[in-house]
Amino acid sequence: MTTQSTLGPPTGVVDDDTPDPLLPRRGRRSGRFTPYALLVPALIVLTLITGWPLLQLLIMSVQEFGRAQVFGAAPDFVGLANYVDVLTDPEFWQVLGRSLVFAAVCVVVTMVLGVLVALLMKRLGTVLRTTVSIGLLLAWAMPPLSATIVWGWIFDTQYGVINNVLVNVFGLEQYAGHSWLLEPLSFFFVATIIIVWGAVPFVAFTVYAGLTQVPDEVLEAAQLDGAGAAKRFFLVVVPYIRPILAIVTILQVIWDLRVFTQIYALQSIGGLAEQTNTLGVYIYRVSLGSGDFGAGGAISVLVVLLLVGLSAFYVRRSVKEESL
User: What burial class does residue 175 get, using C-beta atoms within 10 Å of its C-beta: 0-12 exposed, 13-18 middle, 19+ buried?
Assistant: First the structure.
């Protein structure tokens, strides 16, 4: 009597349900370079748009490039002399420290307000959410220079709304004719309001798009388990939207660290440039103001390296947290 094994198909019979182990490997090999091939056109465009100007900037930073070179004189190669001059200049370190603190404050305030507005939009009905979205879009669409002029009028010394309200409504007579842009601290207070006001819509819309992808079933399960609103947000919602928060934070750091228009416009209205320069305005004044384009190029290269380092550190940290 012959018995048939139950561990597999009989000898000589081909099991159609058994996958060929070679097929997945061949599929992976054939499509392994497809993502990189799809990125090639975008990389070429980015290289042409940003790579060539960056190379020119790097070359300028190792040359003595002034107004004479702008009008055709041959630049002289000076090596790292521009970098040495910049790094040994106390004013550069003052501007760098001021810019880092200012950017950190703007990023933190923008991210907190943007996330809160996104959470508010998630809970609002259709009509109110549409109204809030329109208001955010109007703030986002306003050019930075126009927004700075409007806010400068609001904080105007004689005719500003803020001084008028503080004096006539709250009875604070010391704010009659008060100059908000004369002191560095109040100057950056006004600049922070302007920058955060224009940046919150981007954060709010981006985070709101991420919040719509959080499964409601997971939030309901966490609520049934006794998790409060704060725990549900930090333990359930944040892990889902962490990549979005990382990208938005990096973009805000880059934008706020090299902000130019708002600071320069406020200085033109009434601020003291020597005490309120940030990196973007400082590069402009060194390059075009004093005509030392070589030093301005060196500062720009240092800022690029700083931004790349901060971005790489934050991305690496986020990737490590996701892999845990």
Answer: middle
The confidence score (pLDDT) of residue 29 equals 55
Q: What is d(CA 258, CA 279) in angstroms, rounded to the nearest whole number? A: 6
pLDDT in tens, 99-135: 999 999 999 999 999 999 999 999 998 899 999 999 9
Q: Please count the other Cβ atoms lying within 10 Å of the Cβ belonging to residue 86.
A: 22
| Residue 133, both tokens | 């979205």
- For the chain, the first-to-last Cα distance in angstroms comes to 58
262 contacts: CB under 8 Å, gap ≥ 6: 144, 147, 148, 191, 194, 195
Structure tokens at 14: 């081909």
Total Cβ atoms within 10 A of residue 76: 12
pTM, entire model = 0.82
pLDDT category at 1 given cuts 50, 70, 90 is very low
Q: Compute, in degrees rounded to 10, the torsion defined by CA atoms 108, 111, 115, 116.
A: 50
- From CA 88, how far away is CA 93, in angstroms rounded? 9
